[in-house]
Amino acid sequence: MTNVYSLDGILVFGLLFICTCAYFKKVPRLKTWLLSEKKGVWGVFYKAAVIGTRLHAAVAVTCVIMAFYVLFIK
């Protein structure tokens, strides 16, 4: 089990956050509710969704690598 205070935990949390926000961008009701603000604290969700959609191949490869690391190496 990874904790948030280690580097692997922060990377896993960041990847899951980016993937979740990218999914929220595809759901119309959640997009208008959560991703309407582009600045401030709520803008973090929008920026993560943009990263997830524009770099979807890199995010997917990184998720597979982190899954392999967490399941088999750690």
From TrEMBL:
Keywords: Golgi apparatus, Membrane, Signal, Transmembrane, Transmembrane helix. Signal peptide: none annotated. It comes from the Eukaryota. Coiled coil: none annotated. The chain crosses the membrane at residues 6-24, 44-72. It is found in: Golgi apparatus membrane. GO terms for cellular component: Golgi membrane. It is a single-pass type I membrane protein. Belongs to the KISH family. Involved in the early part of the secretory pathway. This is Protein kish. It comes from Phyllostomus discolor (pale spear-nosed bat).
